[in-house]
Amino acid sequence: MSSPSAAHESVLGAITRSLDRVLDTIPVPVNTLGCRTAPTENIATDSIKVIPDLSVMISTKGGMFERPVWLMECAFSQSDCDVMRKLDTYIRDIPDLLVVGKILITQAERYASPGSNGSVAQQLRSSDIMTQEEWLHNHSVDDFHRVVVDGHTWFSLSSVEIHVWTRQAGGLPIELDRLDGDEYAVRTLYLTVNLDDINRIFLRGFELIKEDVLWKLVTTNVDQSLLDRMEAWLPPPLCARFHVVDKHTRFGWHSELKSTPYNTTPREYSLRRKTAKVKY
Q1: Cα distances (Å, whole numbers) of residue 9 to 65, 121, 146, 181
Q2: Other beta carbons within 10 Å of 40
Q3: Cβ-proximal residues to 116 (8 Å cutoff; 6+ apart), any chain
Q4: pLDDT tens for each residue of 68-126
Q5: Angstrom distances, CA of residue 19 to CA of 5, 95, 203, 255
Q6: Phi/psi of residue 242, nearest 5 degrees
Q7: Are 22 and 206 in contact (CB under 8 A)?
Q8: Single pTM value for the model
Q9: Which of 198, 212, 202 has its CA nearest to residue 235?
């Protein structure tokens, strides 16, 4: 492993669940038009084949035709430059995209698998696993920037940022160079949780999805009552849901130990309950 993947996946997972809660409220039967989130979805156009970290797909005709409208990448094991190149490619090759975004996780120290430290692997192999409740009970909000157990750095986090761009007014394409205005937002998940603008731009993204869905319904000659329900639909607020991301990120690398062999043996590994060995 090149990074603690649970830290990467827990942020994406929490955002996916928040998106699902909103998309599930869209008042359109799935056999007419469907909206779904998809991790690592294979997306192919005439010129590219890609697998974004997170996609929102809209399908018509019972799922026979499906296209991406919202794509996100997480920069952890890959560089920020690589992620920006991917986002630029998505925008150029998928002209109907409504939203793109990136989660930028910056490590204070480069992660190394405990499989490279034989003594740590042996100790983990014979230890008990703490529950999430036990782990969080023993540590404060500020304890998670760096965790060292028996000389091995498990987690060394500097910051977590979320950047999101939407289509411009008048249906103009997304502009990655635009870092102000209503079509862009950046906020932090760590060291502090500050997501006001992210909630705002996510709601703007849902409004763009609403417009897109309405257009599709009009062109398929659906019943007027369905159009009326869709026009009246308002996406529910996101703020309370997004604050859970921070907690999931802190514990995610620890829960990964339950199922990952870390390059040693296919047995279950664990953190010790003895917190005296943990340094910050």
Answers
A1: 28, 23, 19, 30
A2: 10
A3: 263
A4: 999 999 887 678 899 999 999 999 999 899 999 999 888 777 766 666 556 666 766 67
A5: 21, 22, 10, 23
A6: -75, -20
A7: yes
A8: 0.76
A9: 202
E strand spans, the chain: 33-39, 43-44, 49-50, 54-60, 65-75, 99-107, 146-149, 152-166, 184-190, 278-279
Residues 218-257: b if buried by 16+ CB within 10 A, e if exposed: eeeebeeebeeebeebebeebeebbeebbbbbbbbbbbbb
DSSP 238: -
Query: What beta strand segments (E) does 168-246 contain?
Result: 184-190
CA distance 89 to 94: 8
What tokens does 157 get? Answer: 């986090």
123 residue type, one letter: Q
Distance in angstroms (rounded) separating the CA atoms of residues 169 and 244: 31
Per-residue pLDDT for 45 more than 60? yes
Dist. CA 89–CA 83, nearest whole Å: 10
160, 106 Cβ separation under 8 angstroms: yes
Distance of CA 164 to CAs 51, 80, 98, 120, 129, Å? Answer: 18, 14, 11, 39, 37
